[in-house]
User: Fold this.
Amino acid sequence: MILYDYILSPSCYRVRLMAALLGAEMTSRPVDFHPGREHLSPEMLALNPAGTIPVLTDGSLTLRDSTAMLSYLAAGHDPEWLGEDTPAMRATVAQWLAFSQRLTSSAGAARAHDMLHGPGDIDVLRRAATLALRELEAAISAQRRRGMIFLAGPRPTIADIACFPHVALAPDGGLPLDPYPSIRLWMREIRALDGFIEMPGIHRLHELKPEPGPMPDIRQTRTTRDPKQNA
Amino acid sequence: MQTDWTPVALSHDIPVASAAPGRIGDTALAIWRSASGRIAAWSDRCPHRGMRLSHGYVRGERLSCIYHGWSYGEDGGCKRIPAHPDLTPPESIRVPVFACREASGVVWVAEGQPAGAPPDLAGFRGLRSLHIAAATGAIAEVFGGDGPVLRVKLGPVAVIALVQAFGDETMLHLMAPESCDLATLDALSDAAEALRRNIEAEATA
Ligand SMILES: N[C@H](CCC(=O)N[C@@H](CS)C(=O)NCC(=O)O)C(=O)O
Ligand code: FES
Assistant:
């Protein structure tokens, strides 16, 4: 399984995170999205004519949509992540996957605008993102009234993993998360999951990290370093 | 109803051993709860390099900054600097601490030392905090009341709306009667969303 991957892309991180939570083996093939625009190279366009990343290949299968990749990974490794096998729950999960693409095109586009000079009217993007974040906040608060926190039932599913990256990175697009208490608590639960991995700007719950100690002495590190590493 | 206390959060949104952002007037707050359940509201600025302490983490009875891990005790004083574990941090390294009380499931903060206790809202429990992109005046107008504690009707239900200035916007902390069942709470949440849409539509009209 090969993931055509870009470290700063929330959509790629969705897939890396899901694979890590499932313990699925996957090879990351870095794509120089910025500034190289390698996602638009002839080789990448042959894989994905839409010119977006991530792309996931597994043998003869090529997937071009990150939420489809989440479904594929979960179905292959631990179907519990697909949500309870009832018509209502499967539809609820599908609805959240579609919702997550609303986050991509609003909060994600606002972030791309602010960080990578992406296109779009920033006020329109932020307004659309705010509506989506409010919808998410309301839904999680409803889950909390039922003693739950995840989007589709009592345990995390691909719905949570699809929505999490763009929400967590929303502040990069000028969308502070201060007004959303339920979203904050939901993100804490995801950041505390076994197998959780980080990306730049998204961290494992700090409470679960070791207590910070003194910084290593750089001079000492230098003199003891294997000279071959400098070659 | 008037009070020197400002409602800044609902208790259930700040579980044990966690920190959350808030504000009072123009001051950003780090509202946090220790492992033993003690609530506190501090200035949201780490004395070291100004990182937001509301992004920090709680261990035991201390709040630590995520940037370089300086940790602060109950009185706001710095207790540990990880880069210098043998140093006793000087008394002068201190986060400004605000008066903070918890009553009826609401976290109240005050500037200075208020004389009375926060309002008693017995019989109600916190439902949701909603951010509204309109000044508090616009909300008071809709509800036809004054002050931060408004007893109003939302649909058929008598609720309490706690109105907090959030910069030039508003945080609405909604309290529902304790006796409400789940379906009613869901309906109140929907009604609050609709109310917000109306207030914002009017504010921008
Ligand atoms: N098909 C979507 C695309 C995700 C997406 O928008 N990816 C961004 C990078 S984060 C991208 O490739 N943008 C390139 C473009 O739109 O030209 C998915 O897999 O979720
Ligand atoms: S800024 Fe808080 S510890 Fe350095």
About this structure: The first helix of chain A runs from residue 10 to 22. Residues B 46, 48-49, 51, 65, 67-70 surround FE2/S2 (inorganic) cluster (ligand 2) (CB under 6 Å). The mean pLDDT of chain A is 92. Chain A touches chain B at residues 134, 138, 141-142, 144-146, 178-182, 184-185, 188, 203, 205-207, 211-215 (CB under 8 Å).
